[in-house]
Design goal:
41% helix; 11 helices; 3 domains; 7 strands; phosphatidylinositol binding; Ubiquitin-like (UB roll); PX Domain
């Protein structure tokens, strides 16, 4: 019997009970001081559908408890278990669904292969959203520590990043964002209704996150936001501090010396 593993609403992999048993033994040897929860008991006879479902839930609860300990969840042993393996390929599970967060907080769900790189995934997302005409001005990002949004490299594997961040509270750590810093060029995109909607919600999201400093324009922006007047909202927000800027997390080091730079 193969159990499909879901965590935080994401399908990570498919594993048999004996593989859980092996994982449990390996983790206990690697982390001898940790009090591991018990696995659902072994059964020597055929299980009913209800019993199989109970076992599946028990196995998921085991993983959730163990992975809540960051050092265990991020260990090589656990990551290898959660990553796609031979069983997934045998079962024909190479195709998976990937959730991508959009600025309006909706999700774009695309079917991809586990081994697809960022470029391939990006093309699938753009095609599904019908944003081909503005594809050069957007890209895929990963939400990392301090809610910083890191632009993915073309040859990275988004699905690997997706499953490695299974413990995050949100449905996905992969998002689609604008990658354009020239206002004049951005204004040319507003003739495309899909692009205009995307830019509007991106600006709303940046205001909500405090990236854009609204000053005394907060209430005017709220009114425009409620009516979804995208053109006037963007016209106002473009003049505010923080618009179309990249904000890096604060550096914890308070010692600055000559020659220290930020690589962009």
């Amino acid at each position: 019997v193969v159990f499909n593993i879901y965590m935080a609403g994401r399908h990570l992999c498919s594993r048999r009970y004996r593989e859980f048993d092996t994982l449990h033994g390996n983790l206990k040897r690697e982390f001898p001081d940790f009090s591991f929860p018990r696995l659902p008991g072994k059964k020597l006879f055929t299980l009913s559908e209800q019993q199989l479902d109970q076992r599946r839930r028990g196995l998921e609860q085991y993983l959730e408890k163990v992975c809540a300990v960051r050092v265990i969840g991020e260990s090589e042993t656990m990551q290898e278990f959660l990553a796609a393996g031979d069983l997934d390929e045998e079962e024909g599970n190479n195709e998976v669904e990937l959730k991508v967060l959009l600025p309006d907080k909706s999700l774009c769900i695309v079917s991809i292969c586990r081994s697809d790189n960022t470029e391939s995934v990006y093309k699938a997302v753009i095609a599904k959203l019908h944003l081909e005409d503005v594809a050069e001005y957007l890209y895929l990002f990963e939400t990392v520590e301090y809610n910083f949004e890191r632009k993915l490299l073309p040859q990275e594997l988004p699905h690997n990043i997706y499953i490695q961040n299974y413990s995050t509270a949100t449905a996905t750590c992969i998002l689609l964002k604008k990658w354009l810093f020239t206002i004049s060029r951005e204004m040319m995109l507003t003739s495309n209704s899909a692009a205009l909607k995307f830019l509007f919600w991106q600006a709303v999201d940046d205001v909500n996150k405090g990236i854009i400093k609204t000053g005394d324009k907060l209430y005017e922006l709220k009114a425009l936001r409620e009516t979804e007047d995208a053109i006037e909202y963007l016209k106002m927000v473009r003049h505010l501090e923080g618009y179309s800027e990249v904000v890096f997390p604060h550096c914890s080091c308070d010692s600055r010396r000559d020659g220290h730079v930020v690589a962009i």
